[in-house]
């Protein structure tokens, strides 16, 4: 199996390398690492279209190597799919291990999940994996200590048994690992985040322009059984199947019954 490994924390991130070593230890698995040259957290599905991408080979301490780019996590997946590494065509995209959880509504901002989504766009199975810090935060504010051992071991086992796992087509697995020793694994739906952001003036920049904070004011969540947020809070690894079909299918029928074609006519004809 040929695995493309990427992340949004950057080519030097500890989580990336713990997972890289765990995947490389699997028999019959080839790992190619392409990651941003620095932190691209919360960039979502951003791509680079208006300039060329810089790509540099990076040699790792264990004799392996990878490639760093000044692009985004999605760019990394595209670079691989378009032939950056001669003779390599990925069978699986793995993104992570992210420094911090990606739970509930937060996944729409996550560069880690976005990279896995790009795998799905390209017709590949994909896994996004994130690790809660030792501070056991339940939002995007991070502690300063992480243990990636359990997450790397778990994902390596998932990769090893991927052909036996009932994964529907065009689906990625979003994996979140709590701090400490997990009490189990729960297949869970996305939970609901409660954002309590506020506009706070920070200061003036060197040109006299005002600067503001607008994110990060104590977000919390709905504690609902069966959700990823509640399961991680209870100390369980969560696995959530995600797909890219954002269509609200129940809305197609009622909306089709509404005569939207009449809106093509000038408004004055309806008066």
From TrEMBL:
Coiled coil: none annotated. Its EC number is 3.1.3.5. Its cofactor is a divalent metal cation. InterPro entries: SurE, SurE-like_Pase/nucleotidase, SurE-like_sf. It comes from the Bacteria. It catalyses: a ribonucleoside 5'-phosphate + H2O = a ribonucleoside + phosphate. Residues 3-196 form the Survival protein SurE-like phosphatase/nucleotidase domain. It is found in: Cytoplasm. A divalent metal cation binds at residues 8-9, 41, 98. It holds the Pfam family SurE. The keyword Hydrolase applies. It is an enzyme of class 3 (hydrolase). GO terms for molecular function: 3'-nucleotidase activity; 5'-nucleotidase activity; exopolyphosphatase activity; metal ion binding; nucleotide binding. Keywords: Cytoplasm, Hydrolase, Metal-binding, Nucleotide-binding. Binds 1 divalent metal cation per subunit. GO terms for cellular component: cytoplasm. Nucleotidase that shows phosphatase activity on nucleoside 5'-monophosphates. Belongs to the SurE nucleotidase family. This is 5'-nucleotidase SurE. It comes from Paraconexibacter algicola.
């Amino acid at each position: 199996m040929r695995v493309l490994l990427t992340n949004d924390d950057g080519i030097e991130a500890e989580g990336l390398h713990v997972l890289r070593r765990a995947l490389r230890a699997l028999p019959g698995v080839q790992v190619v690492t392409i990651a941003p040259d620095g932190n691209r957290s919360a960039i979502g599905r951003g791509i680079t279209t208006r300039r060329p991408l810089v790509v540099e080979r990076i040699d790792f301490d264990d004799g392996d190597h990878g490639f760093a780019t000044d692009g985004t996590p999605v760019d990394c997946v595209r670079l691989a799919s378009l032939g950056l590494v001669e003779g390599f065509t990925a069978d699986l995209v793995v993104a992570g291990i992210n420094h911090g959880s990606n739970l509930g509504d937060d996944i729409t901002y996550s560069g880690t999940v976005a990279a896995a989504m790009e795998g799905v766009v390209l017709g590949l199975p994909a896994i996004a994996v994130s690790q809660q810090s030792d501070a056991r935060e339940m939002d995007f504010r991070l502690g300063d200590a992480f243990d990636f051992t359990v997450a790397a071991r778990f994902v390596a086992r998932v990769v090893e048994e991927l052909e036996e796992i009932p994964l529907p087509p065009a689906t990625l697995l979003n994996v979140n690992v709590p701090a400490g020793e997990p009490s189990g694994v729960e297949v869970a739906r996305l939970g609901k985040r409660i954002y309590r952001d506020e506009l706070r003036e920070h200061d003036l920049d060197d040109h006299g322009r005002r600067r503001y904070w607008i994110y990060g004011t104590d977000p919390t969540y709905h504690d609902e059984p069966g959700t990823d947020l509640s399961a991680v809070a209870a100390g369980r690894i969560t696995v959530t199947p995600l797909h890219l079909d954002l269509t609200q299918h129940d809305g197609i029928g009622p909306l089709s019954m509404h005569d939207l074609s009449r809106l093509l006519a000038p408004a004055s004809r309806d008066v």
